[in-house]
Design brief:
Layout lengths: L5 E4 L2 E4 L2 H19 L2 H8 L3 H8 L2 H16 L2 H6 L4 H16 L9 H7 L6 H27 L9 H20 L4 H13 L5
Antiparallel strand pairs: 1-2
Helix pairs in contact: 1-2, 1-4, 1-7, 6-9, 6-10, 7-8, 8-9, 9-10
Amino acid sequence: MECPITIKARGRPREFDPEKALASALRVFWQHGYEGASMADLTEAMGITKPSLYACFGNKEALFKKALDLYEREKLCYIQAALDAPTSREVVERLLRGALDTHCGGSDPQGCMGVISTVVCASEAASIREHVVARRASSEAAVVARFERAKAEGDLSESVDPRALTQCLTAVVQGISVKAQSGASREDLEGVVDTFLAIWPSR
């Protein structure tokens, strides 16, 4: 990310590192959601002033979308690896274990940044909700396609509806996120994953 901005620190110009600032903004959004993250919270965490934030990242909505890009690149990279697994059950296990590691990590905020930001979005932030939902739909479409392939290969029963199965999986992943944010233990959530895998409809 190119951002030729300097800010003053005790009278001396200091280089502004946009990547580090964006990573800090990501943590604020992840912890508080879009609406819960105030500009004061963001500028304090990023170590910059409001004018510097606007000059480099645009407004709060633009900053959130850039933070979401970073979140997907760094925290959700397990999704593509999961889709490359040889069987549908392995796909699901990698997705669920990856969600556990991401949403229940020791150093990162608990829960999913996208879920946190959409659940509490009021009408004033409808565009943010729509943006996050659109991204989620793209990921879900990739999972549907993978399950359709699994069905064609005989890995899933002919009676299985790949789209409905994907919706079921999505509900479990989002449920894990919400429960993690509300304080559920890693052990309890691993039990959810194990139970879901035990009833997976593979042949």
